[in-house]
Amino acid sequence: MHPKSATDLFSLPESGVHEKTLHQTIPLAHTPTVTTQLWLCIYPNLLAVDAVAPNTMEPTLISEENGGRLFVGACNLAAEKYGITAGMSLTAALSLYHEIVVLPRDLMAEQQILNQLADWTLGLSSRVSIYAGESLVIEIKGSLRLFGGLKTLYEQVTKGINAFGLSYKTSMAPTTKAAFWLAKWGNGQQIESMEELPSTLRPLSINVLVQDERQLLRLQHSGITTLADFMRLPRDGVARRFGSAALKTLDQAIGRQPEPLKWYQSPYRFSKTRELYQPVSDFSLIKPIAVALLKEFETYLWQRQAITQHIQCRLIHRDGSETVVHVKCSQGNWQADHFFPLLEEHLGRLHLSEDVAAVTLFVDRIQTDLTASQLDLFDTTVGDEQNWRQFLEQIAARLGQDVIQCPLACADYRPEQAIAGTFPQLRRSTRTGCSRPLWLLSRPELLAQSRKDLEIIPGIERIEQGWWDGDDVRRDYQIARGLYGNKLWIYFDRCQKHWFLQGYFG
Amino acid sequence: MADELGRLIDTTPYLWRGNQPLSQKLEVFPSGYQTLDRALPSGGWPLGNIVELLPIAAGIGELRLLLPIIRDITRNQGYVVIINTPYELYTPALVNAGVELDYVLRITPKNRKDAFWVAEKALVTAACRMVLLWPDGFADAAGQSKRYIDHRLTRRLQVAARSGNSILMLYRFASHGGRGAMNKTPWATIRLLLTAMEGGLKLDVEKAIGSHRQSTIRLCWDDAS
Fold first, then answer.
1. In the 8-state DSSP scheme, what is residue A108?
2. How confident is the model at residue B18 (pLDDT cuts 50, 70, 90)?
3. Which residue from B88, B100, B105 is facing A442, i.e. has the nearest CB?
4. Which residues in chain B are closer than 8 Å to A483, comparing Cβ atoms?
5. CB contact set of B125 (below 8 Å; sequence gap of 6+)
């Protein structure tokens, strides 16, 4: 290799001419962009052991099979004390310490632990990904301010992972790949800037880049054992001899190319059951349990930056039957304080024939793709308007939606058609010039012909409408004065030849 | 003794001397009628209180009386909740009066208990500034309409109005065909008996905070601002 004659992969072209020639020979990856990302990688280094034998003090190893050969897939610290290392054959390991606990690998359990860990890290950031199937990468740049700096964030992480009882390593870097490499093969470096990245990655073994055994051997035979050696190679030569995959990986690690990630999303379902010490029928005893469940649910939603509009509270009876209470909101929410009054209303109206043995809170419609306004904590317009919505929801929960009517004025001359009541939706308003009563009878009342107490006030209004929709109306409206001096709105129906009372001028 | 009594009257907002103007100025909504504002000792409809309105019959202008205040509240994005009206509300008439219908909510509960419950919830809700409640007209199990209201219920509403700084307009037909005895609530700050008048409304002040005089107000619709 002649490093001087070749173009250093990691130094940017200095002169325009140089750049031009470069572009002619090999397409250089995108120039580095200023990134605002910062990735925390949590790498459970003994995941295979921790998954099958959590918190064990015994020397333990996980056996794996490759082509009929049994070897040590992973082992814990206690086993390492006997000189056992990952990769050695099982026979060799047993000869070093014959009482060692040998367990088969459990991939399912490992996945489950990673998922649990990912669930927990969603509380740190909403951008979490399970990386390479064995670690977690978490975007923390956006969360730093929330946690008040790196130090407190790290404290949180340490405290949280320790609760899982896992052995782990962490690192931090501006790209996911670099963070993962440094956590798995490095010394847990914490790097915040792109500029530091290449120099920090240089000492890493070439293994991180190339997994293919044959290629690895070829590289090693050429004297390339670290990333530093590899970086000195000319791009075009590398691409020709080893393919572009390794180059792409390296570009991603140092931030020259973006790396697509699959975000971790927890299963969209919440179901928690609490059993009562003793079956009860009294709601006051169910209440604290409902509150506890809702609080738990609130945390669950908060960690996912999610909301829901529909929760189910299932009261489970001793014989296994269920009474299900549905609580629906007109707007998504995540707060326990919002759901509880609604749930309370529903529970209060319930007539239970049997005692309740357990309570389940079940939610399967959780929204996570929120627009900013749905979760904006500092939206000042929320206060009153939200209160009002809660009020509407409470009424709907207790009395049913049909009792709520938002008056709606329709442009129709027939009085019955001009009013309409609906649950909150778009309303039109029109103005009419005629004198109209405030009260309208839901159905016109037939007036006895002999009503002497009515005094007709001169003035007549004829309405002939509705022939187009079959509801033909031909009426002569008049105003009459009643016994108490009150004004009545009456009409003479020219089809039926009768007088009717339609309303009052309230 | 006299000193203690005086102090008690001065410090308790529920007590006042009938022959003296109010020591504390009540926060009010202008009624929209200058005659009425001048005649009421509080100078308008007092916030955080119950106003009991006793119309002699339907159709004398008992709701028209409140149209200016409903208009003013709704135009300022305050909600008005109307509970258990005796008849359908003819909305074009509200629109004609300039009321923003978006801020009017009508609720038709099935029994009196629910009606009071809704009224209480509405009164404490900040967005709601006024509640109109017709507590009568619900038939009991025997099919009779009950007109007697437990004072504890109205007391609850008064507390709710106070905490929400909203007004409750309690409508009760004074005659109602003479069926069933009606009891007036002691928790009302203002109680007005409404009778018909050509081109307006006659209001007999039965009770008004800040005064013990029983005056009569003759309101002309043309006075409305």
1. H
2. low
3. B88
4. 57
5. A387, A388, A390, A391, B79, B164
Overall pTM surpassing 0.80 (yes/no)? no
Q: What pLDDT, in 10s, does the model give residues B163-211?
A: 889 999 999 987 654 455 678 888 898 999 999 998 899 999 988 877 7
Residue A8 burial class via C-beta count within 10 angstroms: exposed 0-12, middle 13-18, buried 19 and up = middle
Residue, of A168 and B23, whose pLDDT is higher = A168
Integer-rounded Cα Rg, in Å, for chain B is: 17
Res A466: pLDDT: 61
The answer to whether residue B220 neighbours chain A at the CB level (below 8 Å) is no
CB atoms within 10 A of CB A164: 15
CA of B124, closest CA in chain A: separation in Å? 10
Q: Residue A425's pLDDT is what?
A: 31
For chain B, helix, strand, coil in percent to 5 are 30, 25, 40
Q: Is the ipTM of this complex over 0.95?
A: no
Task: Note whether B178 contacts A: Cβ–Cβ < 8 A.
Answer: no
Which residue of B88, B123, B132 is the best one to mutate when testing the A interface, meaning the one whose CB has the most A CBs within 10 A? B88
Question: What is the interface size between A and B, counted as CB pairs within 8 Å?
Answer: 154
Nearest CA in chain A to B55: A506
Q: Are B207 and B190 in contact (CB under 8 A)?
A: yes
Contact of B104 with chain A, judged by CB distance below 8 Å, is answered with yes
**Using 50, 70 and 90 to split pLDDT, how confident is the model at A216?**
confident
**Do residues B199 and B221 make contact, with C-beta atoms less than 8 angstroms apart?**
yes
Q: What local confidence, expressed as pLDDT, does residue A53 receive?
A: 85
- If one compares A5 and A261, the residue with the highest pLDDT of the two is A261
Segment A286-315 shows an average pLDDT of 86
Q: Decide if B57 and A483 are in contact by the 8 Å CB cutoff.
A: yes
Closest CA to A105 of A45, A64, A155: A64
Segment A400-412 shows an average pLDDT of: 69
Q: What per-residue confidence (pLDDT) applies to A13?
A: 40
Report how far residue A388's alpha carbon sits from residue A394's, in angstroms, rounded to the nearest whole number.
Answer: 10
Helices marked H in A245-305 — which ranges? 245-253, 283-304
> Which residues 129-148 of chain A have a CB within 8 Å of chain B?
none
Interface test with B, best of A438, A445, A447, A479 (most B CBs within 10 A): A438
Inter-chain residue contact A409 with B95, CB threshold 8 Å: yes
* C-alpha closest to that of B66 among B44, B48, B88: B44
